[in-house]
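Help! Submission page says 'invalid entity' but I think these are all valid:
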Amino acid sequence: MAQITKKEVDVVVCGLGWAGSLMSIELAMAGLTVRALEKGPDRSYDDFAYPKPADEYAYAVRNKVMTTPAASAVTVRYTMNDTALPTRKWGAFVPGGGVGGSGLHWTGVLIRPTPTDIKLKSYVDEAYRPGILQEDMRVRDFPFSWEEIEPWFDKFERICGQSGKTGNLRGQIQEGGDPFEGPRSNPYPLPPLEDTLNNVMFAEAAKKLGYHPFPNPSAAASRAWTNPYGNQIAPCNYCGYCSKYPCLNYSKASPQTAVMDALKRMDNFSYEVNANVLKVVLHDDKKTAKGVIYIDEQGNECFQPAKIVVLSSFQLYNVHLMLLSGIGKPYDPVTEEGVVGRNYAFLSNGGATLFFKDKHFNPFVAAGPTGQMFNDISPGNFDGPGLGFLGGAKIHSSQATGTPMSAALPKGTPSWGAGWKEGLEEWYGHSMKVSITTTCMSYRDVYLDLDPTYTNEHGQPLLRITFNWKQNELKLQQYLKGIVGNIVQELNPDSASMSFLPMDADFDLTKYVSTHNVGGAIMGDDPKTSALNKYLQCWDVHNVFVPGGNAFPQNFQANPTDTIGAITLMAAQAIKDRYLNNPGPLVQV
Amino acid sequence: MSFQAWGQDDAGLMKKGEYLSRLGDCMACHSVSGKPAYSGGLAIKSDLGTIYSTNITPDKIHGIGNYSEQQFADAVRKGILPDGTRLYPAMPYPDYAKMSDEDMRALYTWFMKGVAPSDVQPPETKLSFPFSQRWGMRFWNLVFTSDKPFQPIGGASAQVNRGAYIVEGAGHCGSCHTPRGIGMQEKALDSSDETFLSGGNLNGWEVPSLRGLPRWSEQEIVDYLQTGRNDKAAVGGEMTSVVEHSSSYMSAEDLQAIAAYLKFLGGNPALQRDDEGARQATEAKLAAGRHLSEGERLYIDNCGACHFASGKGAPGIFPQIQGATIVNAQEPGGLIHTILAGAQLPSTAKAPSELAMPGFAKRLSDEEVAQLATFVRQGWGNKAPAVTKEQVAHVRESLETKK
């Protein structure tokens, strides 16, 4: 294995998904030399030219655009006393792999958290009597105000060509939008996607029950859109291949459609694929990094010197790299000292599947982010304190895909063979879903660290997840079961099946939930309890920035991508405006 | 003039020369990917044989480093090399003849000082007899070229004349868009003749007339040249490289001048209004999805994702089908080629997205492509002749031999 030292660059970006591509283009536009290293392969338009992605087995079953467990396994256990085992097949979550990362195959729901979501600890302190919530809960505020972050949501949404209905324009509540939305400085760039029958039925039922449904905010553009980088996003054609698929129609915002073509034109940007970053190399005083070590496609060990290191891989792998590189003190769940690995959170889903003999939903007309949702059951919008738990959910009906293998069938239908085929013929197009996407709080003993038993091909310990459901989240599930039940009753189907976690549920790693893993290297105001400051800069190593879902101190009911985009853009601006002139910590404590 | 004699003023000249090299699209013909810029070697297939472009870097042995300014100008404007060798008019010197002395000086300065010398030796052009007899070009030149410098159009605005200077001269638009005569010469070299820019045929593609461009507004002409796309169409075929290497680098003023000039030319009959009733009828039938013809079904399965049942595509992204030049061309070669091989938009400064249409050669048979193309040429109010599977087979064959 040859050892190669590369020419120094201003910025090395590790991971070329949303966070990495946004950092790359923003910093390259400021004139810096930027080099991105991506562990997976390149994924260009040719790979997903029509009709290649319309292949449910390849993409949704065989995970064609995901990273593989062989390359990216983690180990998982329920409690601190268990021995964790490695993931050999993806289940509950499926991180993307290659250029575009998870931003290539996401569903495209582009929604902001509420102002309460980003100040959750303050809300808890104000609304909950002491002793109501679990003692081991460790929720925190995001270290910025709504006014501070809002312009960056706005910018990211223009980069994506967000489609939807404005709910709160500079404090004015808008009919048909989400009344719980934080004030927006600008309306949605594009009108909402078209509704399908299930959406209309769901919205009517929800309204009748007193809720405030609004169209899903979408990154599948409803109209042709040219974004601030000049990239073009095409209008969605409702083909239904979104979640787990690259978009065959240039319609879903992804690093490819929204960033890469403009980025690739820049002479001061370059990228290398199949380049697996193993470690950030620190100077002797551990206060700054001098570059990264990676293994290139040919298996050579390369050192890439850089003045700024950006870790912009998937949440789990950002935390892993920090732990492997000795950046920030690892978290100890017993003493609660250390910052890297704390506040990991996942989330749960669930809901009801409704069957109607006489309704034709035409599910082949679909888009991942089409649908209607309401946000009445999110923190601060209902009586969580009285019910004894913290959290909430967005409750929605989407017509996300019409792919046959994922089609819902009534209970009792065989899951394979001739019986399954008969069931599919009879019931395809006759069901709709009412779904929940929940919050998930962070806890003292839910965290990430290096696994003591299992190593990867380079001899490095795998990342270990310690996670199981807590009573708080299960109580929330039970409460949501009641709400969804009422909606189902209102819709009056021929039959329905419900799926909610019982109070004794354990985390099931085998069934897909979402890939909204968050936390582990969180942003905060206090270096004792957070790994990063509000500009995603490591408190300890000031030229390392870590944009990604890792920065969330807990999980909110809104999908994470909008927030990942916003905090990344805010950090990029701080680097341009302040860090370059005066390298050092951007927040003093 | 020696290199040393060049002073500070050259910065401006160089810049101008670099810009002129974009106007003239020197890059497209004199570069191949993977080799240094302007080191030549591009194979230009003509009916007479393959012509290879030359090294025009300032390398003294392999390039043009020993050329004096006059020798350079004679090569560009007259097609005569310092040793008396005559160029083939694959190099559009009959058009470049219109370029001013001042522009030649700037271009010369750029090529001598701005371009890196390269010692790459491109393959030699060897045409079969009698075309191998380059001296014969002397007579061709006598008959078909003109030494006359650019003649401003009397009474036209300065903007139109700037457009004329670019289009007739460095832009050499006529070399593709003007019909060729008996000696394969462009039938006209400027606006004084009505055949100028009235369309032609290139490698089986019907090249549209540029006279007046009645379907497009001036802004749509500018958008197309600047970005390879506008609200109605997207660039395809040979024009893709023109946008990528040349017109996307032109200043907004020059592009507007070109648009003004093309509009000034006029000469195409005014368009009939699009038949909105016919368009809606096709849309309704496709949307209903019942009793479809083979062509209609193939359209829904293969094209509707982007061009939609409406046939309207998406502004600036997916081209319109109703009234589109390539769809309605008398000769369907361009349309068939696009269906079989697909098309890729160039990444340009103002529109970086490399949007592509996939090719359907592997997915559709000759008969299917013929059915599909026939429907496209007759749906939404289009009124072009049907396409046969023999025509498709012919284009498919030419694609395969290209590989």
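Support: the input was valid. A stray whitespace character was the problem, and the output above is from the cleaned input. Chain A touches chain B at residues 45-46, 49-51, 223-224, 226, 229-232, 234-235, 237, 239, 248-250, 257, 261-262, 264-265 (CB under 8 Å).
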